[in-house]
Amino acid sequence: MKTKIRRTTGNVFADLGFAAEDAEHLKVRADLMVALTKLLDARGLSQAEAAKLLGVSQPRISDLVCGKIDKFSVDTLISMLAAAGAHVSVSVRRGRAIA
User: Fold this and answer.
1) pTM of the model
2) Which of 30, 43, 71, 93 is most buried by its number of CB atoms within 10 A?
3) Is residue 32 packed enough to be buried (19+ CB in 10 Å), middle (13-18) or exposed (0-12)?
């Protein structure tokens, strides 16, 4: 069997077949979740300590570290990052033309 290799679009969600708009939302949320998880890991916080810092429950932190993307909005993730002392900035680039 020959394996077919395709070049990535740079968005795994688009590559998996999600609609363009959904793929963009998922990628933004995933990027924010990764940044928050890395920040908490770098501080060596337990889930209970992270929950206290961010003002959420420990099960909420468990959802974060388990990657339950459907449980988090962009707004919630930005608020959590801000509570952790992070600065969030947004970059917008021109996309490909829509037919």
Assistant:
1) 0.84
2) 30
3) buried
